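Risk register update: the risk of archive-format incompatibility is retired. Evidence:
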Amino acid sequence: MGVYSAVLGFFVPSGGGKWVIEAPYVMQAANELQVHLGWAVQVYNAAEALPNLINPFWMLPLLGVLGIRAKDVVGFTFTQLLVHAPLVLFMLWAFASTLPYHPPVMP
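Archived output:
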């Protein structure tokens, strides 16, 4: 789920807006795989933020203030993505296994 969210975030940056559309599918997959639903949401959200390391929102004001171009910063931000993506995905996988699955209560 984390890899899916990170890859999709490269092509559809939304700041969380796509969660409204994808939530039913993600929650259904979490239920079928018997994964803690809270961690499923957290994995999705944390992985969705990874593409922001390449083109972060803070870069626009920084470019204007320092008078530099995006190509001067993207090498640094891409390096951050290469370092943090495996680390974040591993930590999400490890932490997700710490909570037991509880099926949702149907009314």
